[in-house]
Structures are given as structure tokens and as C-alpha cells.
Prior knowledge:
Layout: H1 5-14, E1 22-27, H2 34-44, E2 48-53, H3 58-64, H4 73-84, H5 92-103, E3 106-111, H6 118-132, E4 137-143, E5 156-159, H7 165-176, H8 182-192, H9 196-209, E6 212-214, E7 219-221, H10 231-242, H11 249-258, H12 264-271, H13 275-287, H14 299-308, H15 311-324, H16 329-332, H17 336-339, H18 343-355, H19 360-371, H20 376-390, H21 395-408, H22 413-425, H23 429-435, H24 445-455, H25 459-468, H26 478-490, H27 494-505, H28 511-527, H29 531-548, H30 551-567, H31 571-588, H32 591-607, H33 611-625, H34 631-646, H35 652-670, H36 673-689, H37 693-708, H38 713-729, H39 733-749, H40 753-767, H41 770-782, H42 786-795, E8 820-822, E9 828-830, E10 836-837, H43 841-855, E11 861-862, H44 863-870, H45 876-894, E12 899-901, E13 905-908, E14 912-913, H46 914-921, H47 941-961, H48 963-976, H49 981-993, H50 997-1013, H51 1022-1028
Parallel strand pairs: 1-4, 1-5, 2-3, 3-4, 8-14
Antiparallel strand pairs: 6-7, 8-9, 9-10, 11-13, 12-13
Amino acid sequence: MNTTPAMLSQRLHALSMRRAGLVAWLWGEPGIGKTHTTRALLRETPCRSLTVAATLPLPDLVRALPRPARLRAWTRAALEAVEAGRPVAAPPAQLLAALLGQLAPFVLHVEDLHEADAARLELTADLAAAVAATRGVGLLVTSRVPAPGTWPERGLMLPLARLSPEAAAALLDAEAGAAVPPEAAAWVFGRACGNPLFTREYFRLLARQGHLWNGGDRWRWRAPEGHPLPVTVEAMIGRTLQDAAGEPLETVLEALTLVPGADEALLSAAAGLTTAETSAALHQLEQLGIVAGRHFVHPLYRDVFRHSRAAPRRQAAARRAVRALDGAPGWAAAFVEEAQLPAEQALELYRRAVDTAAGPNEAARFQALAAHHAVGEHRARLALSAATTVQNFDLEEAARLCDLALSAAPDDPAVRVQAAELSAQRGLLDGALALLDRFEGQPGAWQHQLSVRLLGGDIASALALWREHASAQADCGARVISRVAGALIQAGQLAEAQALAEATLGGALTPEDRAALLSSLANAHFYQGQLTRAHEAWTELIDLCQQHGLRRQRAAALVNRSQARLRAGEADVARPDIEEAVGELLAVGDLRAYAHSLVMLGDLLTRQTRFEQAEERLQEAASVLNGQLSPTLVNAELALGSLYAEWPTPHAPFLNLRHARTAAALAERLGHPILRSTSLALRAQAEVLNGQADVGLRTADEALTLADGAPHPYLRIGALNARGHALRALGRSADAVRAFQAALERAEAAELTEAAWQCRLELARERQDPSAARACLAWFTGQQLPLNIAAVLRAFPELQAEAARTSSTAPTKVPSGGVRLDVLGEMRYGAPGAGDAVRGRQRRALLTCLLDGRLRGRPEVARLTLTDALYPHATEEQGAAALRDLVHQTRVALGAGVIQTTGDGYALGEVSTDAELFLQTGDTRLWRGPYLAGETADLGRPITETLYGALAARAQALCAEQPAEAARVGRLLCDADPYDLDALALTVRALRAAGNHRSLARFYAAARRDLLEVGETLPETWTAFVERHSPA
């Protein structure tokens, strides 16, 4: 009879009344909580108990049981005989039941019965029957499999189920001591599937690897790459799977990995066994706790088993599955590559899979796979057909397919045209145009040139080509015309764009073409200031997309409308549009467009000075792109760099430079001149911000050179501004004025109004002209541009009184009092360099939270945030009271000024910190040891990353000039992250430069041993390691 933990607990409590016996069978998969549940039940039961392993030999089991004060003589003699290994007349189960009856009330817990042999299973069943009739005695059995048919009818059975998503999230919250982000809980549940032990192990793995971290105010999340598996979970599953070694069990498991849940006929065919053989193997696998209901008991069992199979075994299993699934080509096609079928057989199977595909995306996937098995024109046709669909959601894959088609049919016009268009979309315009050279002079060749130049952003050349062929414009399709209209808008020829879109909309069009033209028309209206007509066009467009299911086009319309509303100063209504677009693009699975919309949302939030929210969206965009090289990835890094350029926090300059450098490197790899110029301009300003003005000037000049050859005026404006910032930092004021003036003239000529006002602000700052700055402030305020308002107030703080309504955008001032809080080592407080250690773990944790808030630009930390971080298990009232007491005690110990009370919480008082001083000066001597001496570092993990990142960058610079100091810093970095090979290489190079070869050899040998323990094999000598690991 099935029961519940509560009912079983009641029955166990009743044993003390000695009215009846009790037997119960608790079962479930590994990690489900059998041990936890039984321990909890026994802990609450008011009588003695004993837990023994099911595999314990009978003499040891008898020896382990306690003896009653007055043991019957025959029982004692029989027990002594069993202990000595001599035969006894009484059955062992009856003897054990008699002893347990004399111990009553008593509970015997037999653990992991699935590991026992048949004899022990029989003994346990007999013992259960005897105990059920013995008053005051309980027998609890735990196993991975259900109770056998020999279990007493009156016995209880408690199957332990996995946690629901809500319960699993609550378990994670309990492990974390605060709420874990829903995205993290969903990620863990998708892998642990509610298994409590697996859930905990995943939490520990993610926290250890830094994918889950506590930012001081709440837990944050960044999804890991790939499919990490906790070592403990893998080992547990691996040990269980060892019991299934040999045939036919392994063959059946191989079939289950490919066709889980299949009926016995299909499963037998996939395993190459008879139905009887498969049925017997399944029964045995169920008894081992590996399989339940023709499924692995947990998805991770499938993953671990599949990973353990050798390639020949996987190939043979896949071929059997293909034969078994002859009537289901879509299913069978999933195993073609692993089966390594002959080309003709693979092509035929993929052809049938395409015919039965659920939709165009699935069909394209099969065509792309088939193309690799075809040759010549057949390969080109398959690859081209797949690329046509794939380009809607994965430009890189579409480009690879076009390259494949080109290699198979280099002279095919359709292949060359589509490859050219895809190359243009990726920013490779020169290569795209080269693919069209063969069409020169042919009728219609100009249309291919036009389309490619439009897609590649060469607006001026495209429009010139359009006008050269005025008489042939009517032959162009609506899709090309919509792109021309978009180009006219970018060129500022708005009336012409409007007329072209309106004229084309009068003809017979597909919904897709009509949507493209309506989008161009709406933009033309908007940029002409015809806001009512623009919003009418957007409304019609959104309704059209809704009617015909054009979800991507609808999302694009929402994005465009949001940008229009933002520029119109309607930020509050712009944000819902783009947030809806973000959700829509995620729902349709267009991850490239989803990431792009996240970048735009992040940029919007940055412009609204909602920096923390912007950071989260932009980091998510970068995570979605997963390192896939694309213009959107570059834009994500650019947006992050721009965010940190504006966010007034001590650690922001380092992050600004890091992301700017990443964007520039990615743009160079992509070969995208526009993005390269933009990223170099950002990098130049970041270098200036980090005290490298001379380097920044060279970078700005490089950006300017690239901008001179581009048709986009904003590139030259950005490069000139970057040059002006560098010249200002170098003290060349007159040259800086000339650079800013040139940028202003360029912005005015291009009618880029906001950019022009930004240039006027830089000129006002260089000329120390408050009246000009006041005019800028008035314009930015009128346009509701808080980011620009903040820039004015940073440069001219005396205008604060005139901008009271935007005072929240003012930068945070860092106090420079006579006392300092030191955290670069053991936490100390007092006079700079002579402070005393801060006593009390909670005091240190409180000060860490407040410092984290200041460094992140949010000096005021809410009370609720602090109680969640410091007292996660307390009620709200208890946490608030404890926090008040902790603040009072900290003030008593360190001085009243150390902590300030704010409206909603607390902030650090008039206290400087060595962390801020280091970020400002780069002085590594401030580091006395690991950040916070390694204690509570998780309370500020992003700040930890920033501090150590800045320390690593500074150590690189010290290697040549101060190698001994660089080596000391390198050791700190290695202590912080023993598996950071860059830190190890830095330390080795510094020790070599310092001539400390003996210490170097010992240090490297120890590091090599530590890394070997986690599977990382390094060269035997440090010299070989340095040669292989060049500086980052």
C-alpha cells in the first residue's frame, strides 16, 4: 500500500505503543532523497533505531544489533552461533525478528537493498513478513527499485518523487540563502529535473564556476557554455552504470539512448534482439535502478552512458536505429551522421525527411545536412535551398552553406547572387561585390549590384546606381524597392522615400513585401516630423503582421517604433514596445534578432541612465550570441563599453576599456570597416579614461583614417571626438578645440542634431564656457535626454541648481575623509596604511555590501537588500532588528561616521577605500593580500572580478620594470583563481624576469600538480609552458 511521509511518520510514532509491527519500502532514483527522508523519519521517531547496509554479512549484522538487558538463553546461543559462522536450526529471519521483538520499540533501517544479492533479498522479504507480526518493531527498507512481489501485503510503500519546478526553485533559494534568478532555477531544473541531490550539486558547480554569484543585493546569473556536469553526479551515475556492463544490457541501453520510450518491438529492432531478450534485459535494468518504463530513470543517465561509448559502438547502434525507423524518416535522419551511412543512402533518407518535415526550418536543417553528402550541382541546390531559410535566423550558418554551394557550383548565378547578399549582410561588401563580377554587362546585373550594396550599407553607391537606371526601376521587385526606400531615408531624402514606398504600395503585393514597404513608409513619415502619419503606418504594419503571422516583421516594427518614440522624448512608451519585441523574438526562436533587440534595449536603458538594468540586458545579449562572430556581437560589446563609459563608478573605466578592446578585436576579425572605426573610437576614449592618452591619440587617428573612407558621417564625428578627448588629456587644448569644432561642423552638415549638441558641450568644456554649457543643458532637458544631462553636470557642477529635476543623474561623489577602509587583504579600518583589523564576520560582511554598492554607483543600499544578504534565514522583522543592532555595534566599534543612514537604507560614510584608490591609481602596493583575505568575496563577485582584472592588467605592465612586484601580484592572482593559466603565465614570466629561478621551479611544479588534479595537463617544464602560453 502506497503511503506518504506524514502517514509513515505517524505509524513509526505508534511503535512505542507496541500494538503492531511496521514494514515500509522507500524507493526512488539516486539523489531523490531516500537517505534524507529516512534520517528525518528516524530522528523524529521516539524509539531506538539502527541503520545497516543491505550488503552487510549476516554475522556482522547480528553483531551490530544491540542486546536487550535480559536476552533469552536460546536467542543468545543462536546469535552467538550466527556470529561465529556456525549453522543454527532457526531460520535467520525468525531469529532476527525474535531479537528485534525483545528490543521493542525498535526500528531497523536496511539501506540500499538494490545492491544486495538474491539471498539477502529473500532474507529481507522473510524478515519483513516476521516483523509485520512483531509488536513494536519497524523495518524500513530503502532501494532504487520498487518492492518485489514477495513484499508483505500489509507493508507500506513510499515512492519518492522528484521536486516540482517550484519546489526545486525553493531548494535552490534555501541553498543560496536568498532568491535565485528564475532563469537560473529554470536552467538547473532543465538538467537536474527535480532530483534534489543533482539540484544541489548543480548549484555548487555553478556558484564555484561563477555562473551564479551574489552581487551584494541579489543573486545574479549568467548561463554557462556547453553542458557542464557536476563531477559528483557523473561519478554516482557512472558507478551505477558499471552494474550494466556486458550484453545484452549494453545493447538495450544503446537503443534506449536513441529511441527512448519506444515500444518493445521498436526497441528490440533498434537493439538487434528478440522481444524476449529485450524484455528480460529491461527487467534486469529496472532492478538495477537504471531504467524505468523504457526510459532512463533520469536524462543525465542517458548523457553519461552515451558519452562513455566508443565511436564504433555508437556507429553500430545508430545504424540499427536507422533500420528500425525506416517508416519514420524524420526520426531516422537524426542518426545519419553518427551512423556514417553511404552517401546515396544518406541522401535518400534526408530527402524523405525533408518531405515529411514539420516546417521550413526543420526541412532546411535536413537539406543542410544532406548537402554534405551530395556533389556538384546537387550539393549546390541543397545548400542554397537551406541557406534561403537559414539566413532568417543564423547568418553565419547561411554563409557557410553558400560557401559550400559555391565550392560545388562556382558558376551558378543563383548561388553567386545569394552568397553575395549574405556576405553583404555580414559586412563583407568587397567580397560580396567580387562575387558579382561575372554578371557585369548582363541584363539585370545592376539589380544584383543594387541589392548587395544596399544590404552592405553602401548607401551612396546604391542610390547612384538606382538613379543611373531610372528607366529600369519598374522591373525591380518590391523587396528591393523597400530597401531603396530605406536607403533614401538614411540619406536624408525623405520625401523621395515616402513617394517611392507609397507608389509601390498601390500594386499587388505579398504580405511580406507590403510589410517591408510599410516599415519604410513609417520611417519616412517619422523623420519628416509627420508623427501622426508615422504611427498610423506602424499601426497598420503591426496589424498586418499580426493578421498574417509575420512575427519577426512585427517585432522589427515594434523596435523601430520604440526608437522613434525614444527620440521623440517618449521613453516611457518606447520601452514597452522594445520589451515586447524582445519577448516576441525569443518566442519565435530568432536568437540573432533577439540578441540585437536586447542590445537596443540596453542602449535605451543606458540613455535613460538605468545602468544596472542596461548591464543585465547587454550581458544577456552577449550570452545569447555565445561568442558567435557577428555584427550584433560587436554591437553588444560596443554597447557595454559605452555603458561603462557613462556609469560613474570607480570600476567602470576598467570595464569600459576591456569591452572596447574586445569590440575592436571582434570588428577586425569580422573585417567590418564601419564597426572597426566605431570600436576604435570607443577604445581611444577608454584608453584616455584609463590614463593612456598617448595610446588613445594613436587609436583615435586610426579610427579617423578608417572613417575618412566611409559614407557614414557619424563615424568621422565619433573619431574626431575621440581625438579631442585624447588631446585634452595631453594638455593640447587648442588642438582639442579644433577636433571638437570639426566634429561639430560634420554633425551640423549631416543634420545629426543630438550629436551636434554633444560636440557643443565638449567645446564648452574645453573653453570653460558656462553659458554654452547652460544652452546644452536646456536643449538636453527639453529633449528629455538624462544621459546627456548627466554629462553636462559632470563637466559643470555649478549648474546643478538649474537642473534640480535631473539631479538624480549626477555622479556619485567618493568621500576622501581622513579614515580609510582597506579591503585589499584583511579588512582594516583607520588611518590610511595604519588601520586596525575589523573584528566580527557580520561587520565585515555589512561593510562589504556597502562598499559594493558604492563601487557599483549605488551608494545607498536598501535595508531589505542588506537583510537578505546578511540574514537570509530570518523573518523580515527579525532581519530588520538584527541589522539595526549590527549597524549600531559597527558604529560603536569603528566610529559613528563609518555608516550613514539614508532614506531607505545605509551607505558608507565619509570613508575612503583602498579599492577605489587602486582603481584610480593602479598602485599594486595597496594589495596586502587577496581581496577581503578571501572571506565573503562572493558578496561582491562582479567587483571582485573587476578588481582582479585591473590587477592583472597592471601586473602585465609591471613585468618589465618591476618584475619582483609583478611576481608578488601574480601569486595573488593565482591564489584567487588557481586554474587561471593567464595568471600562471604572468607569474612565471615575472619570476623569470626577476631571476628567481629556484623559486620559479618550485612554484611551477606546485601549480602543475594542482592543475593535473582537475584534468589540466601542463608541460613538464616552465620554459615549455611559457613558450606555449604567449601573453594575453
